[in-house]
What does this fold into?
Amino acid sequence: MLSFIFKISRFRFWIYTGGTYVVGYALGASVIGDFFRPEYYIYLFYFFFPANIFIYGVNDYWDYETDKLNPKKDEKEYRIHNMERKRLLNVIYLITGISIILMLFQNLTEIIIFSIFLFLSYFYSAYPLRFKTRPFLDFSSNYLYVIPGIFAYYLVTQSIPSTIILIGAYLHISAMHIFSAIPDIEYDRAAGITTTPVFIGKRLSLLLCLIFWIFLSLIVINLANFYPLSFLVFLYPLFPLALLLSGNIKIEKIYWYLPYVNTALGGLLFVALIIDKNILGIL
It folds into this structure.
Protein backbone atom coordinates (compact mmCIF):
# COMPACT_ATOMS: atom_id res chain seq x y z
CA MET A 1 0.00 0.00 0.00
CA LEU A 2 2.80 2.43 0.89
CA SER A 3 4.50 1.65 -2.40
CA PHE A 4 1.27 2.43 -4.27
CA ILE A 5 0.84 5.74 -2.39
CA PHE A 6 4.43 6.73 -3.15
CA LYS A 7 3.98 6.03 -6.86
CA ILE A 8 0.86 8.16 -7.25
CA SER A 9 2.37 11.07 -5.29
CA ARG A 10 4.83 11.82 -8.16
CA PHE A 11 7.89 12.47 -6.00
CA ARG A 12 9.49 14.67 -8.69
CA PHE A 13 6.81 17.26 -7.95
CA TRP A 14 6.83 17.17 -4.14
CA ILE A 15 8.88 20.36 -4.24
CA TYR A 16 6.03 22.24 -5.95
CA THR A 17 3.88 22.20 -2.82
CA GLY A 18 6.41 21.46 -0.09
CA GLY A 19 8.99 23.88 -1.45
CA THR A 20 6.41 26.63 -1.82
CA TYR A 21 5.39 26.07 1.80
CA VAL A 22 8.99 26.31 3.04
CA VAL A 23 9.72 29.48 1.06
CA GLY A 24 6.45 31.09 2.18
CA TYR A 25 7.28 30.31 5.80
CA ALA A 26 10.83 31.68 5.46
CA LEU A 27 9.41 34.81 3.86
CA GLY A 28 7.27 35.44 6.93
CA ALA A 29 9.58 34.13 9.68
CA SER A 30 11.49 36.67 11.76
CA VAL A 31 13.36 34.58 14.36
CA ILE A 32 14.85 31.09 14.47
CA GLY A 33 12.21 30.14 17.03
CA ASP A 34 9.57 30.28 14.29
CA PHE A 35 11.09 27.11 12.84
CA PHE A 36 10.67 25.24 16.11
CA ARG A 37 6.91 25.63 16.26
CA PRO A 38 5.22 22.20 15.98
CA GLU A 39 2.67 23.43 13.44
CA TYR A 40 5.52 24.25 11.05
CA TYR A 41 6.53 20.58 10.90
CA ILE A 42 2.96 19.28 10.79
CA TYR A 43 2.21 21.26 7.63
CA LEU A 44 5.70 20.71 6.27
CA PHE A 45 4.93 16.99 6.18
CA TYR A 46 1.38 17.59 4.91
CA PHE A 47 2.39 19.76 1.94
CA PHE A 48 5.30 17.55 0.95
CA PHE A 49 3.46 14.23 0.97
CA PRO A 50 -0.31 14.03 1.68
CA ALA A 51 -1.04 17.15 -0.40
CA ASN A 52 0.68 15.62 -3.41
CA ILE A 53 -1.14 12.34 -2.92
CA PHE A 54 -4.42 14.26 -2.96
CA ILE A 55 -3.59 16.39 -6.03
CA TYR A 56 -2.28 13.56 -8.19
CA GLY A 57 -4.59 10.92 -6.78
CA VAL A 58 -7.61 12.98 -7.85
CA ASN A 59 -5.92 13.65 -11.18
CA ASP A 60 -5.24 9.96 -11.82
CA TYR A 61 -8.75 8.96 -10.80
CA TRP A 62 -10.53 11.39 -13.13
CA ASP A 63 -8.00 11.09 -15.97
CA TYR A 64 -8.07 7.30 -16.11
CA GLU A 65 -9.55 7.18 -19.61
CA THR A 66 -7.52 10.00 -21.14
CA ASP A 67 -4.24 8.77 -19.62
CA LYS A 68 -4.51 5.63 -21.73
CA LEU A 69 -3.30 7.71 -24.69
CA ASN A 70 -0.35 9.39 -22.95
CA PRO A 71 3.02 7.53 -22.95
CA LYS A 72 4.28 9.86 -20.19
CA LYS A 73 2.33 7.73 -17.71
CA ASP A 74 4.64 4.81 -18.47
CA GLU A 75 7.92 6.72 -18.79
CA LYS A 76 7.88 9.35 -16.02
CA GLU A 77 4.73 8.75 -13.97
CA TYR A 78 2.64 5.83 -12.73
CA ARG A 79 -0.26 4.53 -14.78
CA ILE A 80 -3.29 3.55 -12.68
CA HIS A 81 -4.83 0.21 -13.64
CA ASN A 82 -8.56 -0.37 -13.53
CA MET A 83 -8.33 -2.75 -10.58
CA GLU A 84 -6.49 -0.09 -8.58
CA ARG A 85 -9.13 2.62 -8.91
CA LYS A 86 -11.04 1.58 -5.78
CA ARG A 87 -7.80 1.57 -3.78
CA LEU A 88 -6.99 4.99 -5.18
CA LEU A 89 -10.41 6.31 -4.14
CA ASN A 90 -9.84 5.04 -0.60
CA VAL A 91 -6.51 6.87 -0.49
CA ILE A 92 -8.22 10.10 -1.58
CA TYR A 93 -10.80 9.63 1.19
CA LEU A 94 -7.99 9.10 3.70
CA ILE A 95 -6.19 12.32 2.75
CA THR A 96 -9.50 14.20 2.79
CA GLY A 97 -10.08 12.95 6.32
CA ILE A 98 -6.61 14.06 7.41
CA SER A 99 -7.24 17.47 5.86
CA ILE A 100 -10.53 17.88 7.71
CA ILE A 101 -8.86 16.97 11.00
CA LEU A 102 -6.22 19.65 10.44
CA MET A 103 -8.92 22.22 9.71
CA LEU A 104 -10.44 21.59 13.16
CA PHE A 105 -7.37 23.26 14.67
CA GLN A 106 -7.23 26.23 12.26
CA ASN A 107 -8.60 29.73 12.68
CA LEU A 108 -11.11 31.12 10.16
CA THR A 109 -8.58 32.65 7.76
CA GLU A 110 -6.45 29.50 7.80
CA ILE A 111 -9.55 27.42 7.06
CA ILE A 112 -10.39 29.66 4.08
CA ILE A 113 -6.87 29.46 2.62
CA PHE A 114 -6.67 25.71 3.24
CA SER A 115 -10.12 25.17 1.70
CA ILE A 116 -9.11 27.10 -1.43
CA PHE A 117 -6.15 24.74 -1.79
CA LEU A 118 -8.37 21.66 -1.48
CA PHE A 119 -11.03 23.13 -3.80
CA LEU A 120 -8.56 23.93 -6.59
CA SER A 121 -6.68 20.64 -6.10
CA TYR A 122 -9.88 18.66 -6.50
CA PHE A 123 -11.70 20.56 -9.22
CA TYR A 124 -8.65 21.03 -11.40
CA SER A 125 -9.30 17.43 -12.50
CA ALA A 126 -12.77 16.54 -11.20
CA TYR A 127 -16.16 17.15 -12.74
CA PRO A 128 -18.26 19.21 -13.00
CA LEU A 129 -15.74 22.09 -13.02
CA ARG A 130 -12.67 20.24 -14.35
CA PHE A 131 -10.58 23.38 -14.82
CA LYS A 132 -7.93 21.51 -16.77
CA THR A 133 -10.27 21.31 -19.77
CA ARG A 134 -11.01 25.06 -19.82
CA PRO A 135 -8.51 27.30 -21.63
CA PHE A 136 -6.96 30.02 -19.42
CA LEU A 137 -8.78 28.66 -16.37
CA ASP A 138 -6.48 25.64 -16.52
CA PHE A 139 -3.29 27.57 -15.77
CA SER A 140 -5.05 30.05 -13.49
CA SER A 141 -6.42 27.26 -11.30
CA ASN A 142 -2.87 26.01 -10.95
CA TYR A 143 -2.51 28.76 -8.37
CA LEU A 144 -3.21 25.84 -6.06
CA TYR A 145 0.57 25.35 -5.97
CA VAL A 146 1.02 28.86 -4.55
CA ILE A 147 -1.53 28.39 -1.78
CA PRO A 148 0.81 26.37 0.49
CA GLY A 149 3.19 29.35 0.50
CA ILE A 150 0.39 31.77 1.30
CA PHE A 151 -0.81 29.45 4.06
CA ALA A 152 2.71 29.17 5.51
CA TYR A 153 3.19 32.93 5.43
CA TYR A 154 -0.10 33.44 7.23
CA LEU A 155 0.74 30.69 9.71
CA VAL A 156 3.80 32.60 10.91
CA THR A 157 2.67 36.22 10.44
CA GLN A 158 -1.16 36.12 10.56
CA SER A 159 -1.14 38.22 7.39
CA ILE A 160 -1.12 37.74 3.60
CA PRO A 161 1.95 38.35 1.38
CA SER A 162 2.11 41.60 -0.61
CA THR A 163 0.19 41.90 -3.87
CA ILE A 164 3.34 42.07 -6.01
CA ILE A 165 4.51 38.73 -4.59
CA LEU A 166 1.11 37.16 -5.30
CA ILE A 167 1.24 38.48 -8.88
CA GLY A 168 4.77 37.17 -9.40
CA ALA A 169 3.68 33.76 -8.11
CA TYR A 170 0.74 33.77 -10.53
CA LEU A 171 3.01 34.53 -13.48
CA HIS A 172 5.39 31.72 -12.57
CA ILE A 173 2.85 29.03 -11.85
CA SER A 174 0.86 29.93 -14.99
CA ALA A 175 3.95 29.68 -17.19
CA MET A 176 4.90 26.40 -15.53
CA HIS A 177 1.48 24.93 -16.25
CA ILE A 178 1.34 26.07 -19.87
CA PHE A 179 4.87 24.82 -20.51
CA SER A 180 4.09 21.42 -18.98
CA ALA A 181 0.91 21.08 -21.07
CA ILE A 182 2.61 21.75 -24.41
CA PRO A 183 4.10 18.22 -24.75
CA ASP A 184 0.60 16.82 -24.20
CA ILE A 185 -1.08 18.79 -27.00
CA GLU A 186 -1.40 15.79 -29.30
CA TYR A 187 -2.70 13.46 -26.58
CA ASP A 188 -5.06 16.02 -25.05
CA ARG A 189 -6.53 16.84 -28.45
CA ALA A 190 -7.07 13.14 -29.17
CA ALA A 191 -8.77 12.76 -25.79
CA GLY A 192 -11.02 15.77 -26.39
CA ILE A 193 -9.36 17.93 -23.71
CA THR A 194 -9.02 21.60 -24.67
CA THR A 195 -6.13 23.00 -22.65
CA THR A 196 -4.69 26.44 -23.31
CA PRO A 197 -1.90 24.99 -25.54
CA VAL A 198 -4.49 22.95 -27.48
CA PHE A 199 -6.61 26.10 -27.88
CA ILE A 200 -3.91 28.60 -28.94
CA GLY A 201 -1.24 26.25 -30.33
CA LYS A 202 2.33 25.42 -29.41
CA ARG A 203 4.07 28.59 -30.61
CA LEU A 204 1.66 31.05 -28.97
CA SER A 205 1.84 28.97 -25.79
CA LEU A 206 5.64 29.24 -25.76
CA LEU A 207 5.35 32.98 -26.37
CA LEU A 208 2.93 33.31 -23.45
CA CYS A 209 5.36 31.39 -21.22
CA LEU A 210 8.17 33.68 -22.34
CA ILE A 211 6.14 36.81 -21.51
CA PHE A 212 5.04 35.49 -18.11
CA TRP A 213 8.56 34.46 -17.12
CA ILE A 214 10.11 37.73 -18.30
CA PHE A 215 7.70 39.72 -16.14
CA LEU A 216 8.34 37.33 -13.24
CA SER A 217 12.08 37.91 -13.66
CA LEU A 218 11.65 41.68 -13.58
CA ILE A 219 9.56 41.45 -10.40
CA VAL A 220 12.07 39.17 -8.65
CA ILE A 221 15.05 41.32 -9.59
CA ASN A 222 13.27 44.47 -8.45
CA LEU A 223 12.22 42.90 -5.13
CA ALA A 224 15.82 41.72 -4.61
CA ASN A 225 17.13 45.26 -5.25
CA PHE A 226 19.11 44.01 -8.25
CA TYR A 227 21.15 41.56 -6.16
CA PRO A 228 23.41 39.67 -8.65
CA LEU A 229 22.12 36.18 -7.82
CA SER A 230 18.55 37.30 -8.48
CA PHE A 231 19.39 37.43 -12.20
CA LEU A 232 19.42 33.62 -12.18
CA VAL A 233 15.63 33.90 -12.50
CA PHE A 234 16.25 34.57 -16.20
CA LEU A 235 16.87 30.83 -16.52
CA TYR A 236 13.10 30.43 -16.78
CA PRO A 237 12.45 32.52 -19.93
CA LEU A 238 15.44 30.81 -21.55
CA PHE A 239 13.42 27.59 -21.77
CA PRO A 240 10.64 28.88 -24.08
CA LEU A 241 13.05 31.24 -25.86
CA ALA A 242 15.33 28.35 -26.83
CA LEU A 243 12.36 26.42 -28.20
CA LEU A 244 11.07 29.43 -30.14
CA LEU A 245 14.47 30.07 -31.73
CA SER A 246 15.44 26.47 -32.46
CA GLY A 247 13.50 23.71 -34.13
CA ASN A 248 15.96 21.04 -33.03
CA ILE A 249 15.23 21.11 -29.28
CA LYS A 250 12.49 18.81 -28.02
CA ILE A 251 10.29 20.24 -25.27
CA GLU A 252 9.58 16.70 -24.04
CA LYS A 253 13.25 16.46 -23.08
CA ILE A 254 13.99 19.85 -21.55
CA TYR A 255 10.71 20.02 -19.59
CA TRP A 256 12.06 17.48 -17.10
CA TYR A 257 14.92 19.85 -16.22
CA LEU A 258 12.44 22.37 -14.78
CA PRO A 259 11.95 20.53 -11.45
CA TYR A 260 15.72 20.76 -10.91
CA VAL A 261 15.75 24.47 -11.71
CA ASN A 262 12.79 25.04 -9.39
CA THR A 263 14.47 23.09 -6.61
CA ALA A 264 17.81 24.86 -7.00
CA LEU A 265 16.40 28.38 -7.21
CA GLY A 266 13.82 27.69 -4.50
CA GLY A 267 16.58 26.46 -2.20
CA LEU A 268 18.68 29.51 -3.02
CA LEU A 269 15.74 31.78 -2.25
CA PHE A 270 15.18 30.03 1.09
CA VAL A 271 18.83 30.48 2.10
CA ALA A 272 18.79 34.10 0.91
CA LEU A 273 15.73 34.87 3.03
CA ILE A 274 17.32 33.26 6.10
CA ILE A 275 20.53 35.26 5.62
CA ASP A 276 18.82 38.54 4.73
CA LYS A 277 16.61 38.43 7.84
CA ASN A 278 19.46 37.11 9.99
CA ILE A 279 17.01 34.53 11.31
CA LEU A 280 19.86 32.41 12.66
CA GLY A 281 21.05 35.37 14.73
CA ILE A 282 24.70 34.92 13.80
CA LEU A 283 25.40 38.30 12.23
About this structure: The longest helix spans residues 202-223. The mean pLDDT is 87. DSSP finds 16 helices and no strands in the chain. Residues 36 and 165 are 25 Å apart (CA to CA).
